Amino acid sequence: MTDARIALTTCSNRIDAEALARALVEERLAACVNLVPGVHSIYRWEGKVETADEVLLVIKTTADRLGTLTLRITELHAYEVPEVLVATVEDGASRYLEWLAASVAPGEPD
């Protein structure tokens, strides 16, 4: 098991997704955010089944940044109830994991 985490959220359009991703990386809450366009979601909202085309954000971070990351997503997101799901990373390339941890470490040089 590593300290790395992958968080997922969706946005309704690319502009919102890019703005959220950029804020998370600039604030050192994410080392990298992949934007995956073309996600078609089917979900239940307020008692009805809805559909929407969305952009999936795959957010790379660490366990110690999760609380602040979740808070910022909630604050910055356009959705009333934004998705924030987190998966643990069992293993990975050691150099990548080191880069990820350094990229989100508060106060570290760029």
Mind explaining what this structure looks like?
The protein is an alpha+beta fold and 110 residues long. Helix content is 32%, strand content 37%. It is built from three helices and four strands. Strands 2-3-1-4 form a four-stranded antiparallel sheet. Strand 2 (32-45) and strand 3 (48-62) form a beta hairpin. The protein is elongated.
Provide a brief overview of the structure.
The protein is α+β, with helices and mostly antiparallel strands and 110 residues long.
Fill in the keyword field for this structure.
110 residues, alpha+beta, 4-stranded antiparallel beta sheet, 32% helix
List the helices and strands and how they pair.
Elements: E1 4-11, H1 14-26, E2 32-45, E3 48-62, H2 66-76, E4 85-88, H3 94-104
Antiparallel strand pairs: 1-3, 1-4, 2-3
Helix segment tally:
3
Q: What characterizes the major β-sheet?
A: 4 strands, antiparallel
Mean pLDDT: 96
Q: SS-based structural class? A: alpha+beta
The percentage of residues in β strands lies in 35-45%
Strand order of the largest sheet: 2-3-1-4
| N/C terminus separation | 26 Å
Q: Tell me the series of helices and strands, N- to C-terminal.
A: EHEEHEH
Radius of gyration: 15 Å
Total beta-strand segments: 4
Shape: elongated
Low-confidence stretches: none
Helix content: 25-40%
